[in-house]
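Budget justification note: compute hours in this period were largely spent on complex prediction jobs such as the one shown. Inputs:
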Amino acid sequence: MSGRRRLLSTALAAWLAMGAAICATAIAQPQSGIVRPTTEPLRPSRDLGAQLYAGNCASCHGIAGSGIASPRPGAGGILGQGPPLHGVGELAADFYLRTGYMPLSSPHDQPGPDRVLFTDKEIKSLVSYVASLGPGPSIPAPNPASGSIAEGTQLFTEHCAGCHQELARGGFVTGAMVPPLQTVKATQIAEAVRIGPYLMPRFSPSQISDAQLNSIIKYVLSTRHPPNRGGWGIGNLGPIPEGLVTWWIAAPLLLLSCLAVGRRMRRP
Amino acid sequence: MKLWQWLFAFIVGRVLRRHPPPESSAQEPTRIVPAGTPERSAENLVLVLLGLAVVFALGFIVVYAEFSPKGMSNSLLGICLGLSLLCIGGALAVVAKRLVVTEELEDDYPSAHPEQQEEVAQIVHESGSRITRKRLLVGAGAAAGGTLGLAALTPALSLGPVWDTTPLDLTPWRHGVRLVDDQGRPLRADEILHQSYYTAFAEGADKELLASSLVVIRLDPDKLHLPEGRSDWAPEGIMAYSKICPHAGCAVALYRNPKFPAVQPSPALVCPCHYSTFDPFTGGTVTYGPAGRALPQLPLMIDSDRHLRAAGNFSARVGPSWLNVRERPTNA
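Corresponding output:
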């Protein structure tokens, strides 16, 4: 093989490898409107957070988390508007990003549990950047194992069940949807109680202590597999599905059994 | 319900039916249904089953009266009602299978011709030829149906006071009564935070009292538009409303509280039962839902120790609205 041909084949191999790498990167990138710096550092950093913030958050939350009170055109044609982020701390940033509440495509949408668009490294970077904007609460470390389900049931009924439903299946409040808590992680439950996202009231440690919060989380985690003594939980949604079962399954069965038991008079 | 109604109709029909004139042996028409042999054992079985139905229906009433309103055993109630219905069903089955004489009908049922109708009446009458103690059986049926009906009506007593409605008017609130939390700890003005909500009760009062429970919230005092005469009811923006929805009496357990009010729904107190929505800025007026009147507001004041105290009674009567609901409650 001549030197010229070897050079050519090496170049071809390099070109193919590069093409494959580009395709792999393109596939690996989540299909979303997230703006990323061209080269991301290997480890989470505040600088990466600042870059991601400028590209994805500043349209609504303003420069360096100063907030935008009245609508202003931002990136991607969004009419941006949003609260300031000074002093919200690691806690709020971690909650909104890890649950997919943020980023929001329009400030008028209800933020809710959604696909998480940032990678873990990016979330850590954004959290450290938001925390650096002003002193605020850190990410809580709940320990549901130390809680009591009995206490949690009582506290959940008192403080949460009005909206989230007794078995944490979610529901509605006038003008908004209340998320179910079936897939939320313990840390995010603890964060939500202290923040009160969207329309939820927040609960201070004097109202619900950290120990009580552990009990509430333990109860919420237990609702994912409730004891269905009847055998079939019907979604654990309470009286409406139960009524549907009564009218659409039990009543027709009774009618059918009446037909089976009874005898129609034979006509000649 | 339906079953006992049918039974009742059946019994009434039997009782009100005109008795045929005393049989004159000479004039007796030819029988259509062959005369059956009396079956005392089947009759006894029917009587026993109806007796058991009465016992179980009474059991329902006793269980309801004994355990109401707390610790009522649903399964015990269900078992009593179910067994009572089962016994009546069994009694009817025995009557049909063993007491009523059946005949094979070859022709179509006769239509509305007078003589054919008489024939039908005769068939019905003669079908009962096995029954020897008709009055006793009818009485037992009436007793079973009556007690079951009574049992079904018992829960209506829980709908509320009927003769004396004064407990609905009682209120523990008067000038100077302190607000306490569910542990009996007095609430301080400074622990009532923005964007949070608190449940409070009257100090020393029965928490079960309809007018005792409150929702306490704090709003920006500059944004309040309270009705006339209530300008000093919300010191520092702290407000107290009755926690009992004036629609059906559920607990107003939802506080809609926007993090970013510019683009999110405004603060509201919402009842989770039928989504009656009240605006706390304007004194609890209804903005959505079936509630017919505003959520009653309690005037507040802050004492020298910074504790929250009532400055009077509610703005309106607390609790679900009904017939002649009056505006001002009386003191307990």
